[in-house]
Amino acid sequence: MVHLSVAIARFAETLFWGIAQAAGLALIGGAFGIAALAVGWRMMRRKPRP
Fold it and tell me: What is the distance, to the nearest Å, from the Cα of residue 49 to the centroid of all Cα atoms in its chain?
C-alpha cells in the first residue's frame, strides 16, 4: 500500500506541475499577445495609410 501511495503522490505532483507550467505559459503567451495587439492597434491609429 505504501508503494501505491507513493506512486499516486508522484503522479499527482507531476500532473500538478504540468498544469501549473501550462497555465504559466498560457498566461505569458496571452500577455504577450495582448501587448502585441495593443502596440499594433496604436501604430495603425497613429500612422494612417496614405
Answer: 35
Residue by residue, pLDDT tens for the chain (50 residues) are: 678 999 999 999 999 999 999 999 999 999 999 999 999 999 888 866 66
Own/partner pairs, 24-31, CB within 8 angstroms, 24+ separation: none
What's this model's pTM, rounded to 2 decimal places?
A: 0.55
- Sign of the Cα torsion 6, 8, 11, 13 reads negative
- The length of the chain is 50
